[in-house]
User: Which sequence fits this backbone?
């Protein structure tokens, strides 16, 4: 679930509540016309208005569901119309009729409680006009019963609203935590756990963004630690890991933050130097080579190259989006750089000229 689908769920809940409210009002108004209490047919103006408005809004809302209708405004409008209807019909009964008033009040409370079980404001706005009308039209000794009929759902809906709000807050918090964790996992899945550099997946992701913005002026460096097998064999795998971590940091620190540094294989790294010139690319490759050399990680088995850890580098331009071609060229340059004595840099152009 995303924050959008959460919002969509809330909108759906809102729409459902509104449609239910309109439907119940329409049904109540039609029922009042077809089966009037005490056989006193009172097709009053407000009753007709309730029927027409609820039917119209129901149809309109079905057709244009995205249009928002203000629930509190609709609630008070219908509440006032029902109050007007009760006030018009009661005098037609010749004598004060308590059962009519109570049933009218209960009907309005019932509709509000069903449609607005989580919305105390809408419930109150809908019920209050009818309650006040019923209180005014009835004897004082019936007030307590009527107030009780109103207070009971108000208390129930208030408690229900508080519980629902807490549940919503909890679910909302949980959803954001899950989204955050999903993002963290996604980020982690793009990083190499030992060095913290991008892995191939991370590289792919960064490359897509890079190439979609600007597909020219990029260079690819392939770097390989010299005689690393011998290092591992003599100093052990743990020391080998430590050397990899140090070399990774040196590479990262020798380039700009917008360049992409990837652990491409075991002791092989790949750097994409973005939006640069051939001279700058070569300068950066030289800086990396020197920084790794300057780490002075002792490597007595770096056969005649040095007594510390060194890297060889192959450099090639990235032409258009042809990453495979650039890698092939850089790999050939790296192979030659190794062949020519290691701890050095060879460019694919130099290879072509040779
Ligand atoms: N410690 C450690 N070693 C690794 C890791 N990944 C690869 N290696 C080692 O890196 C070494 C790579 O050796 P080779 O590919 O033979 O190359 P090399 O010895 O560096 O020789 P050249 O590349 O020709 O200079 C192997 O011994 C691998 O076991 C790693 O994550 N940690």
Assistant:
């Amino acid at each position: 679930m995303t924050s959008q689908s959460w919002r969509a769920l809330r909108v759906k809940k809102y729409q459902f509540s509104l449609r239910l409210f309109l439907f119940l009002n329409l049904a109540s108004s039609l029922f009042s016309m077809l089966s009037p209490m005490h056989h006193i047919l009172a097709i009053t103006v407000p009753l007709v208005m309730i029927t027409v408005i609820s039917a119209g809004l129901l149809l309109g809302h079905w057709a244009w569901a995205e249009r928002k209708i203000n629930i509190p405004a609709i609630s008070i409008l219908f509440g006032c119309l029902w109050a007007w209807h009760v006030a018009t019909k009661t005098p037609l009964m010749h004598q004060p009729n308590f059962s009519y008033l109570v049933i009218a009040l209960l009907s309005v409370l019932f509709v509000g409680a069903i449609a607005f079980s989580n919305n105390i404001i809408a419930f109150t706005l809908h019920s209050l006009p009818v309650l006040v009308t019923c209180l005014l039209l009835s004897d004082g000794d019936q007030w307590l019963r009527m107030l009780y009929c109103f207070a009971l759902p108000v208390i129930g809906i208030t408690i229900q609203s508080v519980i629902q709000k807490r549940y919503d807050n909890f679910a909302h918090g949980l959803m954001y935590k899950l989204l955050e964790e999903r993002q963290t996992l996604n980020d982690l899945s793009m990083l190499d756990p030992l060095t913290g550099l991008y892995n191939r997946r991370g590289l792919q992701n960064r490359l897509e963004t890079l190439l979609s913005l600007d597909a020219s002026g990029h260079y690819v460096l392939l770097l390989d630690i010299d005689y690393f097998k011998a290092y591992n064999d003599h100093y052990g795998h743990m020391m080998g890991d430590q050397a990899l971590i140090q070399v990774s940091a040196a590479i990262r620190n020798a380039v700009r933050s917008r360049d992409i540094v990837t652990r491409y294989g075991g002791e092989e790294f790949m750097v994409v130097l973005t939006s640069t010139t051939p001279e700058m690319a070569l300068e950066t490759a030289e800086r990396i080579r020197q920084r790794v050399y300057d780490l002075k990680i002792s490597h007595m088995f770096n056969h005649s190259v040095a007594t510390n850890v060194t890297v060889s580098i192959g450099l090639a331009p990235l032409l258009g989006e042809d990453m495979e071609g650039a890698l092939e060229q850089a790999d050939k340059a790296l192979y030659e750089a190794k062949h020519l004595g290691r701890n050095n840099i060879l460019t694919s152009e130099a290879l072509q000229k040779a």
Notes: Residues 194, 224-230, 232, 237, 240-241, 244, 266-267, 338 surround guanosine-5'-triphosphate (CB under 6 Å). Strands lie at 218-225, 260-263, 268-273, 311-318, 345-347. The first strand starts at residue 218 and ends at 225.
